[in-house]
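Hi team,

As requested, here is the filled-out complex form for the guanosine-5'-diphosphate run. I kept the field names the same as last time so the parser does not choke. Let me know if anything looks off before we queue the next batch.

— J.
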Amino acid sequence: MFSSNTRTLVVVGAQWGDEGKGKLVDVLAEGADWVVRYQGGANAGHTVHIGDRSFVLHQIPSGILHPGVRCAIGNGVVLDPDTLFTEIDGLVRDGVDVEGRLYVSDRAHLVLPYHKLVEQGAAHAEAQLNRFRSSKRVNCAETIAMLERLGERLLPLAEDVGLVMHRAVRSGAAVLLEGAQGSLLDIDHGTYPFVTSSNTTSGGAAVGAGIAPTDIDAVLGVVKAYTTRVGAGPLPTEMDDPLAGQIRTLGNEFGATTGRPRRCGWFDAVVVRYAARINGLTDLAVTKLDVLDTIEKIAICIGYEYEGELHEEFPADLTAQERVVPRYEWLDGWREPTADCRHIDELPSAARRYLDRMQELVETPITYVSVGTKRDQIIGKGLGTRD
Ligand code: GDP
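And here is what came back:
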């Protein structure tokens, strides 16, 4: 997607996360000079499959898997330094050269063991009530000793990432800003309170990388050909079993970090059109089309029925989000494998009709279609080209 006009590109999830951003970033990193993570923390996980090998990355941008691409962790990331070094050491063991290619913003906040302790306590209502009478104590001396130990490795990576990125943008470098989670988990625009604690949408990319919003040239929204969500919260198009179980198995819909089964639903054009608006999506990447290969009839949600009316915009009200009844349009499935397709014309005509309807409803052109976990299982124009 990089061209003379597109030098700074944001990749965001346009559903509830796990859309396959890692794969798209990996593909696009081929043409990038820099890949920057701008929000989230160690709880986010991308899985990238290269040949027979799989890499799960939590904090390090997946661009690290491309030799020569430089990677930065922006100020918007809440950095767990202990996990960072476990991740670095793992990559080095797997033969990935990290030395001199990874920068950490000197403004990033650190997550330390006592933060986790507090959060674990507050998971239980009783503990939350008794919080200030908890028998657990933070050992300051131990925390300082830990920071001194980690500091020896962390400080050499520390940089003014905002300044470095500003210079990179000015010099015309191809910069990829890598989002974590998804737009519907955005603290302001998502399905609050079932959200994350940061702005996952493209506005957060400028803030979290320390660059200006006007530096961003394009925003690629990644969506699955269906919908998934982890944990509680509204999911209007949620499927019933046995179909949900079938899609979960076919799509391997289990969390990369926690192994938690993901809830599955039909593609929700109301949600993605909303994501297109709040992110300013210029392009869409549809992943996991292959997962629907065996499904006979495929639904797309085109609106919500609520209190006797049809709504085409995603509501802010949580009660409405929970109670809306999706209005579906049913399309024929293609019932043939797509994993070997490498050009849009090679896709079965029913799959093309499904994608056409999707881009029409979302009002955003589809630039990439992913048909498998592997790096080369992708259909797209201008794949990661440097000009
Ligand atoms: P991310 O955080 O958005 O990168 O998503 P995850 O890594 O949690 O989940 C995406 C999973 O889907 C990974 O295991 C990918 O390898 C896999 N994946 C990505 N694209 C495709 C695709 O087109 N088809 C299939 N079957 N799997 C895919």
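Two things worth flagging: The CA atoms of residues 112 and 147 lie 9 Å apart. The first helix runs from residue 21 to 29.

Thanks,
J.
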